[in-house]
Structure formats: C-alpha cells, structure tokens
Specification:
Layout (H helix, E strand, L loop, with lengths): L12 E12 L2 E12 L3 E5 L6 H8 L7 E6 L2 E2 L5 H8 L2 E4 L11 H10 L5 H14 L15 H13 L5 E5 L7 H18 L2 E5 L3 H7 L2 E6 L2 E7 L9 H8 L2 H14 L9
Parallel strand pairs: 3-8, 3-9, 6-7, 7-8
Antiparallel strand pairs: 1-2, 1-4, 4-5, 9-10
C-alpha cells in the first residue's frame, strides 16, 4: 500500500464525495452525488448512457470542479483547493480516457512517457520505465509505432500503460473494454488486477459491460439521471431490491425500459439517492 503523504491525515478513503453537483449551461449532469472509495478498493460505476459517469471521473481526477459539494481525493479537498494543490494531486492519479486520448503525432513510447516527462521524473530512467510498462501490458518493442498502426485493443493497452506508468495511488478507467471482444476484455481486467496487486492502489472503473466490471470491482455504484441510484457489494448487484437496478444489471431491456419510463415520470428530484 502506498504510504500516506502530507494532507492525507485520517485517510481511510482514497475518494470521498459529498453532495457533488455539476451542471453545464441549462443541464444538470450530477446532483448530490455522495460516494466513498476506501484505499485499495475497487469501485465500478455503471448506469445508462449520458448519466454523468464520465463527468464524475473527471471530477475525481481534478479536471472539473463541481458547482457544489466536497471532493476529497487522497486527503485533499479538490473543490476548495487552489490550482497548484490540485495539480499536485493529479500527479498521483492516473486516468484512462474513454477514447484513449493518445497523441496521434507521438510514438507509442512517447505517449507512455508523457506523464513521466511532465511529472518531473529523472530523464535517465524514463526509457527503461516505459519499456517495462509496455512489456507489462503485452506490447514489448512497440515504442516506435504510431497509434494509427494499432488495433483498438492495443490502443487501450497503451492508454493503460500511460495511465499507470507513474504508479499512481489512484487509477481511473473510463470504459477500458468498450468495443473489445470477450477474450480481450478478460485480458484487460486481468491486467488491471495485476497492476493493483503490485501497487496496492485504488481503482475506479466506469463501464457499460456490467458483468465484466462486476467481476472486477468489490463495490458497484449505479448512476441514474445524475444521481447515485444504488451502491453496494458487486455480488449483490444482480439481485438488487431496486427493480430498475436489477433489470439494468441483468440486461432485461423490456422490463428495464418500462421501469426507467416510470422512474422518469414519477420520481421527484432526489428520489432513490443512496448516501
């Protein structure tokens, strides 16, 4: 487990969100989100499309400040912190973006090295660290390739290598297996498990592949309409008492659509929020 650093006092949690609200122009994306992720834990976030999952990851990463609420990450309140403090926390967080966010004009090696170069790592050790990280994700010898030469699964692995090359205390993964076949999906989650076992870090994963993320995470949170509809042990997800959560998790589209329609029609603001 990574040792606590300055500002981490009382830190049994890597992430603590309390009443987080985010809106863009006239649309509210997150409303009153309250979640806690213990250090060394694995949180999976699921929910319908456009429900605020990716926005929530950006809030945790310190890339987006909420309109209201507290965001405590690795012992620091990012909602109240100055930019210099937020930037220091970001260097302890790794993030895989949904669309890979690889730089097309940089080689694979330079993409993976980016967090090290811009995080102040000693230049003489960067090449070896990049090579080791690519070897760890099954892409040894690919340093000189360009992203355009890679398959979707390979790009995902490069993204994971870049997100984890600095051995972050907190790793955030946005749709790490979207569009991948079941075999590649299984390999990606095996890789995430191996990384966490080695570093003792904390993982938060957003995924549309409910079964796969439930097999990886120890806790699942479901976002619906920008609110936390359900949070609990991954093992309890498919038999959740809430019919909306249960039908969504099981992929029962007809029942799920009907329940969602009723929820939209009759739920008052804030209903169904778990804190």
């Amino acid at each position: 487990m990574t040792a606590q650093r300055d500002g981490d006092a009382g830190g049994g949690a890597a992430v603590e969100l309390q009443g987080v609200t985010v809106g863009f122009v006239s649309r509210r994306v997150l409303t009153g989100v309250t979640l806690r992720v213990p250090r060394g834990g694995r949180l999976g976030i699921i929910g319908p499309a456009a429900g605020g999952k990716s926005v929530l990851l950006k809030v945790i990463a310190g890339l987006l400040r909420p309109d209201a609420g507290a965001v405590r990450v690795l012992g620091h309140d990012l909602a109240a912190a100055r930019e210099r403090e937020v930037a220091a926390v970001r260097r302890r967080v790794g993030m895989l973006f949904q669309n890979y966010a690889l730089f097309d004009f940089l080689s694979v090696g330079d993409n993976v090295a980016f967090p090290l170069v811009h995080g102040g790592a000693p230049p003489e050790g960067i090449e070896a660290r990049v090579a080791a990280r690519l070897r760890g994700v099954g892409l040894a010898g690919s340093e000189r390739k360009l992203p355009s030469e890679l398959s979707g699964g390979m790009k995902k692995r490069v993204g994971i290598a870049r997100a984890t090359v600095a051995r972050p205390e907190l790793a955030l993964y946005d749709e790490p297996t979207a569009g991948l076949d079941p075999v590649t999906t299984s390999k990606i989650y095996d890789l995430l498990r191996a990384d966490q076992a080695e570093t003792g870090g904390t993982c938060v994963v957003v995924s549309s592949d409910v079964a796969a993320v439930a097999g990886f995470a120890d806790t699942i949170a479901m976002l619906h309409d920008g609110r936390v509809r359900w949070v609990g042990p991954a093992a309890a997800l498919f038999d959740a008492d809430d019919p909306l959560v249960r039908s969504f998790a099981r992929g029962e589209e007809r029942e799920g659509a009907a329940v969602l329609a009723r929820a939209v029609a009759i739920e008052p603001p804030g209903a169904g929020v778990w804190s």
